[in-house]
Amino acid sequence: MPATLQNDTFLRALLRQPTDYTPIWLMRQAGRYLPEYNATRARAGSFLGLAKNPAYATEVTLQPLERFPLDAAILFSDILTIPDAMGLGLSFETGEGPRFAHPLRDEAAIASLAVPDMASLRYVFDAVTQIRSALNGRVPLIGFSGSPWTLACYMVEGGGSADFRTVKTMMYQRPDLLTRILDINTEAVAQYLNAQIEAGAQAVMIFDTWGGTLADGLYQRFSLAAMTRALAKIKREHDGARIPQIVFTKGGGQWLEAIAESGADAVGLDWTVDLAAARQRIGVRCALQGNLDPTALFASPQAIRSEARRLLDAYGNHPGHVFNLGHGISQFTEPDHVAVLVDEVHAYSRKVRQIK
């Protein structure tokens, strides 16, 4: 692996170690709000053409770091690479999002489902290795996966959904079928993230985008339990370095204490959660990541700075905070507004650290 890490602030914050300032990265930081990303995607010909080409994936992963002094890079990929490798036939229609040609709708299809051969995802691991090399120790690289439940939602529905009634009907009517899908997904997620770690990822994150759509009790049974099992299988160390784990359930604030018991080093928060209260609820069990409302970035630079300070004050002068958005950055965000946010988080948190 390449040079010694020059900026490990993000990793130390995840492990609740003291830092000189609050590190920041943004979910979906390499994306359509950047003109250079759109240019690279046009050269690639399609989203999948971009995501499945390690050279292009490396290029777009680095683009936000060239603009902003962010404290981590995140692999450019998609959460649906695993079900795609399972043979479900992934495609992306312009303006319509992901679609699977072969959704899991019957017992036979679910019975034949298997953990994919990780060799079929070699393009992801090659991208991780190339990105890590290109970073040359500038900042850590985050690998990621969708959660077993979130992957199941797409695999059963065949794409996105407003109400997830197909997968939820299966959950209520045939929980045994959903449990089989989740078991396969759990093993696949663990193998996938371990392969990313072996390829060079220095932290990993599980995106549970649709966990918050579940009722209380069912979230714990069908989403959190699967993530907890996956986390237990993921490498905690590689090449002598600690590999922190982050879990993010959008809409999961009411289950914060339970998520903190999953074994993750950090819990991501969406923008509906009170950050100060979350820190009190969690205590020293794990770090917290978040949680600026992404639409705050449409406001004036002064308002953006004010919101950043408000959240930093809410967390206070304590270890274990990684600043992020409460969800992915909007494609309509002005890049200059991102620069303002990163600058304010770094500058103001340095001042907060000086308060005894």
UniProtKB/TrEMBL annotation:
Compartment(s) where it occurs, according to its Swiss-Prot or TrEMBL record: Cytoplasm
Binding-site residues for substrate, renumbered to this chain: 28-32, 78, 154, 209, 327
Cytoplasm listed as a keyword: yes
Residue ranges of every copy of the Uroporphyrinogen decarboxylase (URO-D) domain listed in the record: 23-32, 142-158
Main location: cytoplasm
Keyword field: Cytoplasm, Decarboxylase, Lyase, Porphyrin biosynthesis
GO cellular component: cytosol
Site feature: Transition state stabilizer: 78
Gene3D superfamilies assigned to the protein according to its UniProt record, in alphabetical order: 3.20.20.210
Gene Ontology molecular-function annotations: uroporphyrinogen decarboxylase activity
Record-linked HAMAP family: URO_D
Function: Catalyzes the decarboxylation of four acetate groups of uroporphyrinogen-III to yield coproporphyrinogen-III.
Assembly with partners or alone: Homodimer.
PANTHER family: METHYLTETRAHYDROFOLATE:HOMOCYSTEINE METHYLTRANSFERASE RELATED, UROPORPHYRINOGEN DECARBOXYLASE
Listed name of the protein: Uroporphyrinogen decarboxylase
Species the sequence originates in: Pandoraea thiooxydans
Gene name of the record: hemE
